[in-house]
Amino acid sequence: MCMTILVGKKASSTGEVLIAHNEDAPGRYIMQTHIVSEKHREPGNFIKFEADMSSLELPEERAGLFWSEAKTFNPERPGPSFCDLYVNSYGVVICTNNCEYSKEDKPELKNGGIGYGLRRLVAERAHSAKEAVKIACELVDEYGYASSGRSYAFADKDEIYVMQIVHGKHYAISRVQDDEVAAIPNHYTIHEPENSQELIDYAIKRGWYEPDDGAFDFAKVYQAENSYMVEKNIYRHIRALEILLDEKFPENSPLPFSVKPSRKVNIAMLKEILRSHYEDASHFTKPLTICNIDTLESTIIEIKDNPEKIILRRALGRPCCSPYLTWGINSVREGYEEKEPELSLAEHFKTKPEDLDWKDNAWFRAMEIQAACDICHYKAEIVRERVAEFEAKSGDELFDEKEAEKFMCSLKSELGIIDCEAVGKIEKGKSFRVKIPECISLEISECLCGPSYLDVSKWSKCSGINGNELTFEAGEWINDAVPCFMDLYLKLGKNCVGCVKIQVR
Q1: Structural element, H or E, at residue 181
Q2: Strand 258-259 and strand 325-327: pairing?
Q3: SS3 (DSSP) at 505
């Protein structure tokens, strides 16, 4: 999924370009943060990020990078191609949204095309948003894009460009005007691209468009029929527009690429959008809300004239139950980086299951809190109140990780999350056991166990209670689970939440 809000500098309350982005992806992930140093390379260095895609030449001069990395494990494709966010030392921001599916079924690709390498090479090279678009166009023109459809946002202190790519070598480009705001869920949003003629010619050639059809609309013409104007995107797009416009969006009206907001957009408005559940819906609502079951991280970026002064506000996991902590772009806080950046890049597509093991760090503390929110609705209300209080207290100061850790630990205590004990391991197709404190009285029908990234309705049901030992059924989720040392969560009655760390085979 993903959701991005792009605010022109004249539309923002700070007079600066603002970028707000929720990174969404299903399944077990961890988020890591890296500071990548500037680097000089000798010419002729090539890298093959993904085994089935083109080998790409690295730039001789690499910019410094603030790199938010998403890591997951899939035996068929170990490493995500399309998740990471970058801010480089020249003040260029790059984030993306999935826009599957495009109509393109005959993509032109060179040696498999380009995927992850597009964002990485643009981040390493671009001195401005305009140059970022130029580099991205050159790369797509040469290699072809390996995924069905995606939207790239390139921003600097002055400008924001959106590039929406079709499988292969076709793309639309549009600039967000300084006094406007663009909202991008997971469909194409560009209607009148700057490079319309080439797109029109190709669409006519493929039989997707005729001049007699009316004005050319890139989003409508190039989006696949089963992906055009689907509910999950319409709802999230409209919700963002209604907050920006301070009014109900007219029913059945065309969804614009960008709008002039009713008032200057501030950080509070962007938080409201990224945390939105519509009318208090849960993370599991269908169609998905903006803040949803798959949200891995939420980021709001103020792009300053001096890149070293850029401010990032970041919330781990779902932002409705996690505080936005203020970061600079030149250092990583304790507990947010597991590997040094060169090694992490080398292993991005060589992730091992044990790389996703539970660790006592900031990421997994956030997962514990959001699991409690999903299990007990009233606990979610407590969390939102405490998060608001913490953000108000910390203000715009660079956060002290010890204060943040202290806050999350106190929140766990207030929520009454109980540490439980694993009995053995979890194996596919077999039931598993967990010990809970003896003081808890339970009914079998009230007990569930599962991972924080899945809807509670998909968790394992309790099949037996023997003293303080619970037996859980082998749920379907185990068949697809990463074989690692996993944190699982327990619904122990209506108001009680537990956590157990257990090896999954």
Answers
A1: strand 181-184
A2: unpaired
A3: coil
43 preceded by a cis bond (ω within 30 of 0): no
Distances (CA, A) of 130 to 31, 61, 94, 134, 355: 29, 18, 12, 6, 37
CA atoms within 13 A on the CB side of 441: 0
pLDDT tens digits, 417-445: 999 999 999 999 999 999 998 877 788 99
Q: Chain centroid to CA 28: how far?
A: 13
| Residues facing residue 164 across a β-bridge | 151, 172
Cα 82 to its chain centre, rounded Å, is 10
Contact 475, 432 (CB under 8 A): no
Distance of alpha carbon 376 from alpha carbon 498, whole angstroms: 12
pTM of the predicted model as reported, rounded to 2 decimal places: 0.96
| Rg of the Cα atoms in the chain | 23
Question: Residues 257, 261, 266, 271: is their CA dihedral positive or negative?
Answer: negative
Query: What amino acid occupies position 34?
Result: H
Q: What is the SS3 assignment for 397?
A: coil
> Rounded to whole angstroms, how far apart are CA atoms 96 and 186?
10
3-state secondary structure (DSSP) of residue 173: strand
Q: Read off the amino acid at residue 132.
A: A
| Token pair of 348 as six digits | 């991005």
Q: Which residues contact 346 (CB under 8 A, 6 or more apart)?
A: none
* Backbone torsions φ then ψ of 17, nearest 5 degrees: -65, 135
pLDDT of 11-54, one tens digit each? 999 999 999 999 999 999 999 999 999 999 999 999 999 999 99
Sheet with 469-472: list strands edge to edge. 418-419, 497-503, 485-492, 447-450, 460-466, 469-472, 432-435, 421-423
Asked if residue 91 lies in contact with residue 310, where contact means CB atoms within 8 angstroms, the answer is yes
From 43, 51, 25, select the one nearest 113 (Cα to Cα): 51
DSSP assignment of 421-481 equals EEES-B-TTS-EEEE--TT----GGGEEEE-TTS-GGGSEEEEEEETTEEEE---THHHHS
